[in-house]
């Protein structure tokens, strides 16, 4: 069996009393594109820095392609075969685009290195910028130069710390799609830190959610969105409606419907049911539960509608693709049972 590209075993790294990595273990298979998400200060950058070797562990182990690089001896960052692409791109201002890319290819014959640099610039659509200097490039162009420079030595693993965060929305999506398709085609293992839950779900084939130096949940984007392990994980990826409920005989009764209780939940008593805004179907056709519209925000493909429901203290937020009449006041809604989250 192939070794995982990256393996962390009981990794610990503290700064004073802050555990940036708190006994964290994680395997990342070859060729994975992994999105690393979590609130500010949860240890995402520290995790990247430990994998790259610019930060050392207090205890635990790091393996890259099965080779110990921290814990049992220490391998210097330059000898790890890991590429980086950081938020500020850190291009060398005094070097042309071509020379920035050639920087990581010093060990190759000049002609070889130049051909490789030219090929990458071409694939990233910036061959015509080879002679320019970084200050004369747009943010998106600089980002692609940084990517070309990181890819040039053909690292098996690439680490990206919020690589698209300073691009505006339209450019961000295009550059991200281009970047990830180049990386996927080359079979590179990618670990990308992002603050943006939507970016995490759309960019990676795996998502790791962290909190306070630990992993809360790791899985496919569908696992994290559809089967979050707790309310914190659920709330990270969308707004969440919390509705009081009562567990009785394997069912949870609420004001907005009765749902099957998860198999482990056998006790009788109060609970909270969590409902994502897209799990509520709203219509003007009389049926199910009635509600009054308090507020609407039209977003194009969907509309956010805030509903007041008799018997509920908190209003419900609904994200609906249904185009309700502009003068609608009373509506009816039903909750999709398979999308209800009960922990
Ligand atoms: P952000 O999303 O804000 O970049 P992060 O999840 O990447 O945050 P880290 O940068 O890994 O978080 O930091 C984790 C914790 O360790 C934070 O509490 C941070 O203040 C602390 N920390 C990180 N590096 C150092 C350092 N060199 N000295 C002291 N504390 C540090």
The number of strands is 21
Mean pLDDT: 91
CATH T-level fold name of the largest domain: Rossmann fold
CATH class wording of the largest domain: Alpha Beta
CATH level-four homologous superfamily name of the largest domain: P-loop containing nucleotide triphosphate hydrolases
Unreliable spans are none
Q: What value does the Rg take, in angstroms?
A: 24 Å
**CATH 2nd-level architecture of the largest domain:** 3-Layer(aba) Sandwich
Helix-strand category: alpha+beta
Mind summarizing the main beta sheet?
6 strands, mixed
Helix share, percent: 10-25%
Biggest sheet, spatial arrangement of strands: 7-8-9-3-10-11
Task: List the SSEs and their pairings.
Blueprint: E1 6-15, E2 18-28, E3 33-37, H1 44-52, E4 59-64, E5 67-71, E6 73-74, E7 82-86, H2 97-102, H3 110-123, H4 139-151, E8 157-161, H5 169-185, E9 189-193, H6 197-203, E10 206-211, E11 214-219, H7 221-226, H8 231-237, E12 241-248, E13 251-254, E14 257-260, E15 269-275, E16 280-283, E17 289-298, E18 303-308, E19 316-320, E20 330-335, E21 341-342
Parallel strand pairs: 3-9, 3-10, 7-8, 8-9
Antiparallel strand pairs: 1-2, 1-4, 4-5, 5-6, 10-11, 12-13, 12-15, 13-14, 15-21, 16-20, 17-18, 17-20, 18-19
Helix pairs in contact: 4-5
The structure holds adenosine-5'-triphosphate.
Task: Provide structural commentary.
There is one protein chain. With 343 residues, the protein is α+β, with helices and mostly antiparallel strands. 23% of the residues lie in helices and 36% in strands. The mean pLDDT is 91. Strand 4 (59-64) and strand 5 (67-71) form a beta hairpin. The two termini are 36 Å apart. Adenosine-5'-triphosphate (ATP) binds at residues 15, 18, 20, 38, 40-46.
